[in-house]
Amino acid sequence: MTAETSQTLDRGLRVLKLLADTDHGLTVTELSNKLGVNRTVVYRLLATLEQHALVRRDLGGRARVGLGVLRLGRQVHPLVREAALPALRSLAEDIGATAHLTLVDGSDALAVAVVEPTWTDYHVAYRAGFRHPLDRGAAGRAILAARRKPVGETAFTLTHGELEAGASGAAAALVGVTGVEGSVGVVMLADSVPERVGPRVVDAAREVADALR
């Protein structure tokens, strides 16, 4: 800690990180041990975080991340979209297909940024705000595949006709971006995806990930 930082805020943020890393919540005693502070300090931190809906406590006294965190998370979308647009524009123009950035939203894949190519006679209409189950379409499947791969490993996913008849998709997950789970991909009217598209999508996903770090 330096003179310019807040010890209380630091501890509160550490509480949120600890709770975010567990599915079953933590007790006051467990948080006290992990933070290295007494229980009174933990009670005060939790009470303050509860006031802002960032933490909730169940009947058994276990603290968990609150719904307020989701509201904060939604405000991240515009920032992520802005950072991703240059790579998406380059991808759309290079491939001649609609490029998109998709983020996880609950059990769905949510398109938060879409760029259409300027030089093609036709392309797939794909709009920001479009959502679909994670287990359908290249964007969602790429995210699910990344969850099963070793940390840092990137690969592309191909699909055909899962979201729109006659349309094929290619997507690669964002890797190494703390707090953001998503993918970059393209969708095109084709029976199959040309060979060069998969590696190009992986490159674009890396560009976006670099922009977000």
TrEMBL record:
Keywords: DNA-binding, Transcription, Transcription regulation. The keyword Transcription applies. Residues 68-213 form the IclR-ED domain. Signal peptide: none annotated. InterPro entries: ArsR-like_HTH, GAF-like_dom_sf, HTH_MetabolicPath_Reg, Tscrpt_reg_IclR_C, Tscrpt_reg_IclR_N, WH-like_DNA-bd_sf, WH_DNA-bd_sf. It comes from the Bacteria. Residues 6-67 form the HTH iclR-type domain. SMART domains: HTH_ICLR. Gene3D superfamilies: 3.30.450.40, Winged helix-like DNA-binding domain superfamily/Winged helix DNA-binding domain. PANTHER family: HELIX-TURN-HELIX TRANSCRIPTIONAL REGULATOR, ICLR FAMILY, HTH-TYPE TRANSCRIPTIONAL REPRESSOR ALLR. This is IclR family transcriptional regulator.
